[in-house]
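ok so i was messing around last nite and threw this chain in just to see what happens. nothing serious, just curious
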Amino acid sequence: MEEGEKKLLAEALLYASDKPLDLKTLQRALKIRSSAKVRKILEELVREYDGRAVEIVELEGGRFYMRLRPDLVQFAKKYSRHRALPHGILKTLATIAYYQPIPVSSLAAIRGKDVYRQLKILVEKGLVEGEKSGRTKVLRTTQLFADLFGVENNPTAIKNLVAKMVKEAGELRAGITTTSETGLKPASNKSLENGSVAHKHP
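result:
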C-alpha cells in the first residue's frame, strides 16, 4: 500500500469514528507495524487540517480525533447531521458531571424515575460510567466525555465547565439543582448549551 493511500485511509477512519482513536487501533486498521510511521501520517494530517473548519487534534494518551473547530460549533449546529441528545438527558448528564461522584439513588431523587432510562442511553454512548459501591452504583463522567467537551478529565475542571455553561445558558435553577436544595456536595471546585454532546462535522 502506498504512503498516500495509507494517509487517505487514516483520514477516512478519523472521519468515520465518533470517538478518539489511539495509535494501536490505527496501526491494526492500516496494517502498519511501526507506531512511528502511523504517528508520522497522523501528524501530517494534523498539519494539513490546521486552519480549516474541521480539525484533527491529538488528545491525552496519544489519541487522535477529527472534529469541527469549537469556535464554529455554535454557527454550524443548526445544520448539523448529528442528532442532539434530548434536553432531559442533557440535564441528567450535567447533573452527574457537576456532582460526581454521585450515587444513582441521589441522582434519581434529583431527576426523577425516568433517570434510569436516561442513564442507559448515557452509558451506551460512553459518556457516563458506574462503579459498584455497597448496594448502589456511583456515577462519573468518562474520559470520552472530557475529550468531547475539550476539558481535563478531573472533577474540578468538569464542575467548572458545567457551572460556566449553565450560567451562560441562564438555567441554573431549571437545569442543575443547587447544593442547598439537594444536600449534595458538588465536585471540587463548548458544550452542553449547544444541545449536542459532540459536533464532529457540520
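not much to say yet. Residues 87-194 form a domain with the Arc Repressor Mutant, subunit A fold (CATH 1.10.10.10).
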